[in-house]
Design goal:
With 210 residues, the protein is an alpha/beta fold. 36% of the residues lie in helices and 25% in strands. It has 7 helices and 9 strands, in the order βαβαβαβαβαββαββα. β4, α4 and β5 form a beta-alpha-beta unit. Bound molecules: glycinamide ribonucleotide. The site of glycinamide ribonucleotide has 14 residues, from α1 and β5.
Length: 210
């Protein structure tokens, strides 16, 4: 079984989907720790209720981003994680942190990257009158939301969509694709080579797109 650490800042719906997939044996891994930069993150409660070890490491307690990322890295190193899953972890990571865990860091971002890096992605898609929006799971590299994409899922944008409508439609896809990618990762069927995501050949049919 692979050892997974999950980093969160908020509600933790993606965390919940990963916990469920591990519990059900769909992911050949177990979550050894959930770490949040925000003590009020509801995701911490989800983890505690499931008996998973939690840590709150507040960025407010550190003088600089470098100091914070060093402490976060040291905490993660204690768990010797095979896979570090960013699930709504709303922090920019230093290049040093990313290099320390290179190839093990996954992120989910609510847009069809490379479109809409950063914040307020749903609002930007609506304002730009996009007809299509979605979510990307990608490897983390030092470039913010710029690492190689592993999987994307697309959703339509309707004329009368509010930000909440669109967020809900995207969220459904998040909860579907993140556990799938973590499953592949834990099975060793996924790697990052020369800044590209590489799959083994059997994965494509499982996505339903092949
Ligand atoms: C998710 O929509 C995720 O895509 C987004 O935060 C939300 C976390 O929700 N991540 C980012 O915006 C990263 N830049 P959750 O706490 O319910 O999983």
């Amino acid at each position: 079984k692979k050892n997974i650490c999950v980093l969160i800042s908020g509600t933790g719906t993606n965390l919940q989907a990963l916990m469920d997939a591990c519990d059900a044996g769909r992911i050949d891994g177990s979550i050894s720790a959930v770490i949040s930069n925000n003590a009020d993150a509801f995701g911490l409660e989800r983890a505690r209720n499931a008996g998973i070890k939690t840590h709150c490491l507040s960025h407010k307690d550190f003088a600089s981003r470098d100091d914070y990322d060093l402490a976060l890295g040291d905490l993660l190193a204690q768990y010797d994680a095979d896979c570090i899953v960013l699930a709504g972890f709303m922090r920019i990571l230093t290049p040093e942190f990313v290099a320390r865990f290179s190839g093990k860091l996954l992120n989910i971002h609510p847009s069809l990257l490379p479109k809409y890096r950063g914040l307020h992605t749903h609002q930007r898609a609506i304002e730009n009158k996009d007809t299509e929006h979605g979510v990307s799971v990608h490897y983390v590299t030092p470039e913010l939301d710029g690492g190689p994409v592993i999987v994307q899922s697309r959703v339509p944008v309707f004329d009368d969509d509010t930000v909440e409508d669109l967020a809900e439609r995207v969220s459904e896809q998040e909860l579907r694709i993140y556990p799938l990618v973590v499953k592949w990762f834990c099975e060793g069927r996924l790697a990052m080579k020369e800044n590209k995501a590489v799959f083994d050949n059997e994965i494509l049919p499982e996505t339903g797109y092949a």
